[in-house]
Write a structure and sequence with these properties.
Layout: H1 2-57, H2 64-78, H3 92-95, H4 113-131, H5 135-156
Length: 161
């Protein structure tokens, strides 16, 4: 009986470690998917803001329809519930700079990331109203959008330099 007990216990121990490892693997995969989704969202912000910025700077002709669509996209993106794509522990210190540039300060007590997100929503809503009106209205609204993006990135994102 003793000879049978040890291999069974060994097998049970290996199975429990495998379950924990698979659980960790699943959690890591979910974390990486969340980061991938938020980075895609940031790319969509950049793409739409890039069109608006190019129009504002005269690098491309002003097109009211295109400006309205890009501003509408920004407004929609800023209103997404991002909780699922910003899980605690999905920061540069936890996962490395090859995975993310998000700083752990986002999740620390006293973080004003929520207020910064609200500022982006307000600026995007104002841009949505202004973008299709005229080039001058777009130019008047774009500064607040850029400032709200930069305000969050300066505090909560590892700089490229």
């Amino acid at each position: 009986m003793r000879h049978l007990t040890l291999p069974v216990l060994d097998l049970a121990l290996v199975a429990s470690f495998t379950t924990v490892a698979n659980s960790d693997t699943a959690a890591n995969a979910a974390m990486l998917k969340a980061i991938e989704a938020r980075q895609a969202q940031m790319q969509l912000y950049a793409f739409n803001l890039g069109q608006l910025g190019a129009m504002a700077k005269g690098e491309m002709p002003y097109d009211a329809g295109l400006a309205s669509a890009a501003a509408g996209n920004l407004a929609q993106l800023s209103n997404l519930n991002g909780a699922a794509v910003w899980p605690m522990g999905s920061d540069i210190d936890s996962l490395g700079k090859d995975v993310t540039t998000a700083l752990p300060a986002i999740w620390q007590s006293g973080s004003d990331v929520g207020a910064k997100a609200a500022a982006l929503r307000e600026a995007a809503a104002a841009m949505q109203t202004a973008a299709g009106e005229s080039l001058e209205a777009l130019q008047g609204a774009i500064g607040a959008v850029g400032a709200s993006c930069g305000g969050c990135h300066k505090v909560y994102r590892q700089s490229d330099s």
